[in-house]
């Protein structure tokens, strides 16, 4: 029953994340690309009510995700977030004017089926990280916080690099959120506050990367990459970082995880979605006056 409740909360969280992504993508495209990978990008966006509405949905999604992590392992909860792609595909057609065809729908169905298999084959109970795993997550948060600065330094503000940075960032935030929940459950208030600060800083940097990606790529091309990494990385690393998160059916769990990620990639690389890239870049160019 705890695992079922965790899946329901993760589905709610993923739906909120999907809606937030669609709303924020709409506004991110209207900001000059000269602000990509800079804090000024977020400063501009927070002045837009629609983007703030998306941000509020994202925060509520994080709360639901934290509640799910209090009931089940991060290796089970994070893959379930891929269901947010279904919401994204629906909203992309209604709000963003992007095309969604059989390929995208097929990829989404693969994700839904895979998540159902993950719920059956995945680990039970909450996650308890080892000391080494805790340090690894802390180092990952530090790297994520510096990611926008590093990408800007090497001139990689395009959709692929920033989408990957966004996916890895949210994966790290998911793992660190499990540590926040664990510290809260043990009434270790200072540790809880420290991890919460780390989650906040990493979320800020990841948000910069993700919004930068949405300036250059359509949501239905960027977000599937973000979601696939957000799903796969925690699920793959948790058995290595935690002491009690080995899935009871490892073969089925691994296969279902591969299918879920393949579905996300299928959605992101479909011809219908790829054809929107030129339109998004042209829109950004018109907004900034850059040919």
How is this fold's topology laid out?
Blueprint: H1 2-28, H2 39-45, H3 49-69, H4 74-80, H5 84-96, H6 102-121, H7 131-153, H8 159-185, H9 189-216, H10 219-241, H11 250-268, H12 271-288
Helix pairs in contact: 1-3, 1-4, 1-5, 1-9, 3-8, 4-10, 5-10, 6-11, 7-8, 7-9, 8-9, 8-10, 10-11
Strand content: under 5%
Rg, Cα atoms, Å: 18 Å
Helix and strand run: HHHHHHHHHHHH
Helix content: over 70%
Give the overall form: globular
* Domain count: 1
Structural class by SSE content? mainly alpha
Helix count, per DSSP? 12
Describe the structure in your own words.
With 291 residues, the chain is mainly alpha-helical. The chain has one domain. The chain has helices at residues 2-28, 39-45, 49-69, 74-80, 84-96, 102-121, 131-153, 159-185, 189-216, 219-241, 250-268, 271-288.
Structural key phrases:
single chain; 291 residues; mainly alpha; 12 helices; 80% helix; disordered C terminus
Task: Kindly summarize this structure in a few lines.
Helices cover 80% and strands 0% of the residues. With 291 residues, the protein is mainly α.
């Amino acid at each position: 029953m705890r695992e079922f409740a965790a899946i329901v909360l993760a589905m709610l969280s993923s739906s909120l994340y999907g809606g937030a992504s669609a709303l924020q993508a709409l506004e991110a495209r209207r900001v000059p690309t000269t602000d990509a990978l800079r804090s000024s990008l977020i400063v501009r966006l927070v002045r837009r009510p629609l983007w703030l509405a998306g941000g509020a949905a994202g925060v509520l999604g994080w709360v639901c995700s934290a509640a799910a992590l209090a009931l089940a392992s991060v290796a089970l909860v994070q893959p379930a977030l891929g269901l947010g792609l279904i919401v994204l595909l629906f909203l992309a057609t209604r709000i963003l004017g992007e095309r969604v065809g059989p390929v995208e729908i097929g990829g989404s169905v693969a994700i839904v089926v895979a998540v159902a298999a993950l719920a059956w084959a995945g680990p039970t109970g909450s996650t308890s990280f080892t000391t080494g795993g805790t340090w690894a997550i802390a180092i990952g948060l530090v790297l994520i916080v510096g990611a926008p600065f590093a990408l800007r330094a090497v001139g990689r503000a395009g959709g692929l690099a920033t989408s990957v940075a966004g996916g890895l960032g949210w994966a790290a935030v998911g793992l660190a959120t499990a540590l926040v929940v664990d510290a809260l459950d043990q009434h270790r208030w200072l540790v809880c506050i420290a991890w919460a600060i780390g989650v906040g800083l990493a979320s800020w940097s990841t948000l910069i990367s993700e919004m930068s990606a949405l300036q250059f790529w359509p949501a239905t091309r960027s977000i599937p990459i973000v979601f696939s990494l957000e799903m796969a990385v925690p699920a793959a690393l948790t058995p290595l970082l935690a002491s009690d998160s080995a899935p009871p059916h490892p073969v089925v769990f691994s296969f279902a995880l591969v299918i879920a990620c393949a579905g996300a990639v299928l959605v992101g690389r479909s011809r219908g979605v790829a054809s929107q890239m030129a339109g998004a870049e042209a829109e950004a160019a018109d907004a900034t006056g850059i040919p």
